[in-house]
Amino acid sequence: MKVCIGGTFEILHKGHKKLLTEAFKTAGENGFVFIGLTKQKIQDKKKSIRRYEDRKEELIRFLRERNWLSKSVILPISDKYGLAVDEEYDAIVVSPETYHVAVEINEKRIQKGKKPLKIIKVPFVLAEDGKPISSSRIKNKEINENGELLD
User: Fold this and answer.
1) What's the average model confidence in pLDDT over 88-107?
2) At what angle do helices 52-65 and 14-27 cross, to 10 degrees?
3) Which of 15, 46, 86, 137 is geometrically suited to a Cys-Cys bond with 133, CB 3.0 to 4.6 A?
4) Cα separation, 26 vs 93, whole angstroms
5) Whole-angstrom Cα distance, residue 60 to residue 53?
6) Residue 106: beta bridge partners?
7) Where are the beta strands (DSSP E) in 21-130?
8) What is the DSSP letter of 132?
9) C-alpha dihedral, 8 to 105 to 14 to 48, nearest 10°
10) What is the pTM of this model?
11) Strand, coil or helix: 57
12) Does residue 150 belong to any structural domain of this protein?
């Protein structure tokens, strides 16, 4: 199965790792995962994010540790739809925050005469305080990458 997933992956945290794990589980033993990594230009200019190359390297390290590198490719994306509207994928893995984008992608695919993607919505991974783990919370030093509260 060909599965796609996309994101900024600003700080690769436990929530991102769960999404990626679900993508590879969905793809199966002989499947492939296409990871869309956002370029800076589509990000909010007010937010400072790490360079594309640095975020890509962190993803590569994570994929290599799990022996998933040969079953995946990281592609730059410049909008919220990435390649998912036009390419021949079978499924898309999203968080509750981006589920609506997957629905929009399927609407656009149907308009183009393409089959809709199976949408796999992975629940948020919660920090110790019961709130979702996010890169912004980590950058604000509320929590670490595993959702543990910081003083």
Assistant:
1) 97
2) 60
3) 15
4) 9
5) 10
6) none
7) 32-38, 72-77, 91-94, 118-121
8) B
9) 20
10) 0.93
11) helix
12) no
The order of strands in the sheet holding 2-7 is 72-77, 32-38, 2-7, 91-94, 118-121
145 falls within a domain: no
Token output for 35: 């990871």
CB 1 within 8 A of CB 120: no
Number of domains in the chain: 1
Q: Which of 150, 3, 6 is nearest to 76 (CA)?
A: 6
99 occurs within a structural domain? yes
Whole-angstrom distance, CA of residue 85 vs CA of residue 142: 36
Provide the greatest CA pair distance for the chain: 53
Dihedral of alpha carbons 94, 97, 101, 106, sign: positive
Whether 4 and 82 have beta carbons less than 8 Å apart is answered as yes
Residue 137 domain-assigned (yes or no): no
In tens, the pLDDT along 1-13 reads 999 999 999 999 9
pLDDT at position 43, please? Answer: 46
Q: Residue 33 maps to which CATH number?
A: 3.40.50.620
